[in-house]
Amino acid sequence: MSTERELDTMKRLPRWLMTTLVAATLLGCGSKTVNPVTGQQERSVMSEQQEVQIGAQGHAEIMKEYTALANPRLQAYVNEIGQRLAKLSHRSNLKWTFTVLDSPEINAFAIPGGYVYITRGIMAYLDSEADLAGVIGHEIGHVTARHGAQRATRQQDAALVGLLGGVLGAVLDAKGGGGIGQQIGEASQAAAAGYVAKYGREQELQADGLGAEYLSRVNYDPRNMIDVIRVLKDQERFAQEVARAEGRPAPQAGNSWLASHPSNDQRLEQINRIAAQYQGNKNYADEGRLRYLQMIDGMPFGESPEQGLTRGRNFYHSSLNFAMTAANGWRIVNEASELNIVSPAGDAALIVQLAPPNAGRTHDEVIRNVVKPTSGRVERYNLGGGIAATHFTGAIAAQGGQRGIELTVATGAGGQQFIMVYAAKDATTLQRNRAALRETENSFRAMTAQDTAAAKPWVLRMSALPRGGFAELATRLPLATLPEQQLKLINGVYSGGNVAAGALVKTVVQ
Ligand SMILES: [Zn+2]
Asked: If 455 and its partner were Cys, which of 10, 180, 232, 305 is the partner (CB 3.0–4.6 Å)?
């Protein structure tokens, strides 16, 4: 959870999307623009100037939602590689901005106007400077080929939600490991289906191709794009393995980033074809593995206490000063905008969100302003830590009718209002899980000294691979879930390949 919130009742839509929406709508049916990549004329609702303007607004909002990683050396390094690629791209005239986000999500995205973001989460899984350049090159490709503007243009006549989806799609390029939270609760699912639209397959293939082309232009072997695609594919396979190990149904491909992307095989085939076109250039630069590993040495790995950190059944959030303990068997899924505590069967969840700062001073005001119920009743009680809570059971207006909603409002130690939504597949499921939802809600507390001591982040370190390989290295790891496989995953040998004893590899320490 991030500390800054704007909130719709379920999934918040960043305010900048509304701004973008207004901007895109005002522009009417658009005029002809030449696509910098294809050289073809296309109808567009956004001129380059408007792309830049929307990008600047979007950047400001994204930086409220995310935090830049507090590592000036690493930021400068990523910026330098990004600028090198951008300068040789189809739109060197734009003012390009590259930002490493302090987020454990496996993600990279770009918005119109030349703003590119990469998370520390995905950087942990890349193995060289050339891989990093591949991810950045792909994102630059979305901008140079005007994919965000194309989406906005295509969808300008569609319904409101469709248009919002079109623009948001430009933001959510990759969201690996996501989707777990989307499978819970009907409401959350509907919100996700409505808003989370993505780039089309053709656009993704084009961005891959442009990524490879830009790699070659800055003298990296375009075949490094293959590594990037493998990293993403391995993430999906690992998520399935974890689900199997935990006895859960496998995450549905339909909800993951890869679903919007062309098949791995199709992408690899294309990249190989493109790489072959560059065979004339045999003297590609060194892929910069050691430089890259030195740069990310000491980078936080996984969740950070400032954004919420999960250890076993406990969740700690130091900047919002609260902790919670999940009911036995329940899973904690921490997302940027909300915390989901999900039932063992994945059919119910407690969705914990922060109310917007101006939502109201009393619980009743928060319910009135944020939930906007059409009817309902409240019940007041104290949570375990002595925190006063108001439980609301009622209905809200939904498409073409009413929808039941149940939630609790509680005031945190810092005075912020928290909303805990009881989400379930249906009323029977909610009833069956009510005791566990209550128990979890009841654990809501201010961080204790013990909680603070337990909320220690993990850090990436470089280490020589011991004789016993990843199996031996795994015994020293703080990671609880499939530690050996996780080590192989961050070192790019999850789906095969060997690393010699003594070679430098990434590991995770407390
Ligand atoms: Zn993409």
From this structure: 305
In angstroms, the Cα distances linking 264 to 12, 201, 240 are 32, 12, 16
Q: Residue 339 corresponds to which amino acid?
A: L
Closest by alpha carbon to 242, among 156, 154, 177?
177
Instruction: Answer whether residue 281 shows pLDDT above 80.
Output: no
| Ligand 1 centroid distance, CA of 247 (Å) | 31
Residues 505/472, Cβ–Cβ less than 8 Å = no
**What distance in angstroms lies between residue 207's CA and the mean position of ligand 1's atoms?**
6
Q: What are phi and psi of 178, to 5 degrees?
A: -75, -170
pLDDT at residue 101 is higher than 60: yes
Instruction: Tell me how far the alpha carbon of residue 109 lies from the centroid of ligand 1, in angstroms.
Output: 7
Ligand 1 centroid–CA 134 distance in Å is 11
pTM above 0.85, yes or no: no
Three-class DSSP labels, 371-397: HCEEEEEEEEEECCCCCEEEEEEEEEE
The architecture that CATH gives domain 309-453 is: 3-Layer(aba) Sandwich (3.40)
Digit-coded pLDDT (tens) for 19-65: 444 444 444 456 778 888 888 888 776 788 888 988 888 888 888 77
Say how many Å lie between the CA of residue 240 and the centre of ligand 1: 22
**Total length of the chain:** 510
Residue 379 CA to ligand 1 center (angstroms) comes to: 47
- Distance between CA atoms of 379 and 393, rounded to whole angstroms? 8
For CATH 3.40.1000.10, list the domain ranges present in the chain. Answer: 309-453
